[in-house]
């Protein structure tokens, strides 16, 4: 009986440790959640993992929205400009709602997004992750979520 209790206790400790340490771990870009902060990867590269950070520490991006583009299943993988046209109407209002700022007039913040790899797109994945980042690429400390 004692061994079972130790195993359960160890499992609970590992689970709690993962929850507490999540802001410091590298994880899948597709696993990001709204409000999480991370290092923004170099533009133009395929991103599979990102380094998480507590928003109180220097970071490059903060997730402001997760949603799906309305492209039907079976549609070919879009070129970047077509994807931009679909993602903009999702991300811009989300930026305004999340931050309390107006994206079109704000001079400090920009946005980026992650989208599925072509193989995942072919399987029907249409999820996009929109994030806020500084225009000057300087790291941020603190969340930009409106109070």
Written overview of the protein:
By secondary structure, the protein is an alpha+beta fold. It has one domain. Helix content is about 30%, strand content about 20%. The protein is built from 3 helices and 6 strands, in the order H-E-E-E-E-H-E-H-E. The protein has helices at about 1-20, 80-100, 120, and strands at about 25-30, 35-40, 50-55, 60-70, 110-115, 125-135. Strands 1-3-2-4-6-5 form a 6-stranded antiparallel sheet. The longest helix is centred in the N-terminal third of the chain and has 20 residues, at about 1-20. The chain is globular. The protein starts with a helix and ends in a 13-residue tail after the last strand. The relative contact order is 0.19.
The amount of helix comes to 25-40%
Number of helices: 3
Query: Biggest sheet, in brief?
Result: 6 strands, antiparallel
Low-confidence stretches: 1-24
One letter per element, helices H and strands E, the order comes to HEEEEHEHE
Question: How many strand elements?
Answer: 6
How much of the sequence lies in strands comes to 15-25%
Query: Overall mean pLDDT score?
Result: 84
Structural class: alpha+beta
How far apart are the first and last residues' alpha carbons, in Å?
Answer: 49 Å
Instruction: Label the overall shape.
Output: globular
Number of domains: 1
Rg, please? 18 Å
What's the short version?
The chain is an alpha+beta fold. It has three helices and six strands. The protein has helices spanning 2-21, 80-99, 118-122, and strands spanning 26-28, 37-38, 49-53, 61-68, 109-114, 127-134.
């Amino acid at each position: 009986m004692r061994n079972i209790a130790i195993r359960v206790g160890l499992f609970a400790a590992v689970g709690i440790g993962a929850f507490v340490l999540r802001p410091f771990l590298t994880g899948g870009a597709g696993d990001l959640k709204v409000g999480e902060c991370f290092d923004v990867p170099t533009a133009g590269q395929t991103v599979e993992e990102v380094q998480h950070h507590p928003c109180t520490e220097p970071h490059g991006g903060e997730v402001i929205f997760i949603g799906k583009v309305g492209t039907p299943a079976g549609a070919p993988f879009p070129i970047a400009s077509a994807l931009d046209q679909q993602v903009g109407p999702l991300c811009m209002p989300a930026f305004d709602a999340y931050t309390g700022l107006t994206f079109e007039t704000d001079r400090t913040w920009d946005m980026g997004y992650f989208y599925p790899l072509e193989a995942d797109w072919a399987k029907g994945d249409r999820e996009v992750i929109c994030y806020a980042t500084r225009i000057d690429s300087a790291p941020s400390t603190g969340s930009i979520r409106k109070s």
